[in-house]
Amino acid sequence: MLTVPTLSQRHIDNMYEFGKHLGMAFQLIDDVLDFVTDEANLGKPSGADLQMGLATGPVLFAAQRYPELNAIMLRQFSLDGDTERALELVKQAAQRCLFQFRDSLSRKALLHVAANFLQRDR
């Protein structure tokens, strides 16, 4: 018989935060790729969201959470290191949630998923 483990509210909250930050990281990467990748690699027109004047929810959410991202987004990731800095901030936020858990294979697996997830290029 399969049983569901009982998790503390702290564990549930940390997993929620991890998922939220990982999802935000995915969307930010998509938004960054919109700035730095051509249409052939991206699979859609580059800059489409900006050209349509859309500020997506995840972009606004990230800017509220990480004030440093406001300036980076305003200059559209145009300075050397902007893209890397934005991705690093989001990556740190997701990983910080996982470090609340004890060192285990499960935590290592989730860290691995997050690291690979952030390496996408399309």
UniProtKB/TrEMBL annotation:
InterPro entries: Isoprenoid_synthase_dom_sf, Polyprenyl_synt, Polyprenyl_synt_CS
Keyword flag Zinc: no
Native species: Schistosoma bovis
GO molecular function: metal ion binding; prenyltransferase activity
Gene Ontology biological process terms from the UniProt entry: isoprenoid biosynthetic process; quinone biosynthetic process
Keyword Transferase among record annotations: yes
Record's protein name: Decaprenyl-diphosphate synthase subunit 1
Family the UniProt entry places it in: Belongs to the FPP/GGPP synthase family.
Superkingdom as given in the UniProt entry: Eukaryota
Essential cofactor(s): Mg(2+)
Family matches, as Pfam families: polyprenyl_synt
Keywords tagged on the record: Isoprene biosynthesis, Magnesium, Metal-binding, Transferase
